[in-house]
Amino acid sequence: MAAPTASKAASLGCNNKPTFPELDFRSGARVEELNKLIQEFTKHDQREYDDQRALEIHTAKDFIFSMLGMVQKLDQKLPVANEYLLLSGGVREGVVDLDLDELNVYARGTDYDMDFTLLVPALKLHDRNQPVTLDMRHSALCHSWLSLRLFDEGTISKWKDCCTIVDHINGATNYFFSPTKVADWFYDSISIVLSEIQKKPQRGMPKVEKVEKNGTIISIILGVGSSRMLYDIVPVVSFKGWPAVAQSWLMENHFWDGKITEEEVISGFYLVPACSYKGKKDNEWRLSFARSEVQLKKCISSSLMQAYQACKAIIIKLLSRPKAISPYHLRSMMLWACDRLPANYLAQEDYAAHFLLGLIDDLQHCLVNKMCPNYFIPQCNMLEHLSEETVMLHARKLSSVRSDPAEHLRTAIEHVKAANRLTLELQRGGSTTSIPSPQSDGGDPNQPDDRLAKKLQQLVTENPGKSISVFINPDDVTRPHFRIDDKFF
Questions:
Q1: CA pair distance 275, 460, nearest whole angstrom
Q2: What are the residue boundaries of the Mab-21-like HhH/H2TH-like domain, all occurrences included (predicted)?
């Protein structure tokens, strides 16, 4: 991938040869320059939050959770005591394995400043005593139908209007939980609640700038103070334990062995509202291991994560049309690389350039061979449905990146700097809502105070890029309980 340095040759006794900078063999780019460009991208891509921004984040989160509490009270469909998974980054960033072709295009800086994905369980099945066996007879690998026969009569009664009905020859009726009908119900319920909230606006309440249904995802953009926050809210089915179809994965050796416990990795999984290429949209759900990925992320080196973020920024723009490659595919390749390569190699702080070039090579290899195995269910090829024409088109585009990675990094840096400038211009132009400053005196005693802002700022600083689980009771939304990975607050 990169030419050996003369300094390494010198260490073997060849001191009479001139020294050369380390070069990438394919492009001729200087590895040192690529490392510096990745560092510059990381500097502009990572946002630092002051107390005011931290307070705005907290205000938006509280608004969303209060809204969901009101949705639960509409018809009692959602679980009373629910556990949400809050992920940093929107669906378009590949934090969850969902199809992007049905999503409207939102751009950071133009449409929002920060983005989050919130997984909201519509149903929970939390029996950890045995592997979870799903009904995959009608589905492609990594997908499943969900029969409500797994649940009690009360649950069936509440949700049967969001099911497809299959009558058997013996006269029995089977209700299959429908992702499209659940998404329709969820969007309608959220719209009703937001309409009611906006009839009685309160001081400091976020401004709802946009509510859209993107396929089976509900996207909400909130204006809070000087910030615009995108929440992609995804209705899911939550399971404790581990699916039987992924049991063989646990038998293999993995990069996280000895760093985190198996129990942490297999604590739960989800069904998300997405179907396979030839699947039935009204019935088919996709397995998601988002909770496990939160844990695995703790074992990935900072230099590899920097390379991944830079590579993701390049491919999101380059491979956006036609929609074939998702950032989630790149995330899967990174996890496979962690299994394949020695941990001490991946821990090298000055190897971000090598990792970036390697990720590009891996992605191109997957395209040429039309093969990208799901990390948790390797027998599931996530690129199987693509046409030869599509994969070769994207492979040629990636070849241009590999021939001049420095130029594409500079372009990614300019894009993120432009997005940051748009955010700053909005902040200078005035707030979208009047959130009191944490330093101000007086004000509504019910408003979050300086201590809350400092606490949240501390959590953000200590846990960069981590995902947050939130336990909330809709009858008392003022006291949420946070879990950041394995820590409770």
A1: 34
A2: 323-398
Neighbours of 2 (CB within 10 A): 18
pLDDT at 276: 93
Other residues' Cβ atoms within 10 Å of the Cβ of residue 37: 23
Specify the 3-state DSSP secondary structure of 47.
Answer: coil
DSSP string, 322-383: TT---HHHHHHHHHHHHHHS-HHHHT-TT-HHHHHHHHHHHHHHHHHHT--B-SSSTT-BTT
What is the residue-averaged pLDDT of the chain? 85
Of 150, 77, 122, 81, the C-alpha closest to 475 is 81
Q: How far apart are CA 260 and CA 362, in angstroms?
A: 26
How many helices (H) and strands (E) are present in the chain, helices listed first?
A: 14, 13
CB within 8 Å of 486: residues ≥ 6 apart = 264
CA angle 192, 195, 199 (to 5 degrees): 140
DSSP secondary structure letters along 409-435: HHHHHHHHHHHHHHHHHHHHH--SS-P
**Which tokens hold the place of 105?**
């295009």
Is residue 469 within 8 A of residue 83, CB to CB? The reply is yes
Taking only the tens place, the pLDDT of each residue in 258-278 is 999 999 999 899 999 999 988
Q: Which two tokens stand for residue 58?
A: 């907290």
CA distance 135 to 284: 10
- What is residue 460's predicted lDDT score, i.e. its pLDDT? 55
Q: Could you tell me which of 228, 224, 306 has the C-alpha nearest to residue 45?
A: 306
* Helix, strand and coil percent figures for the chain, each rounded to 5: 45, 20, 35
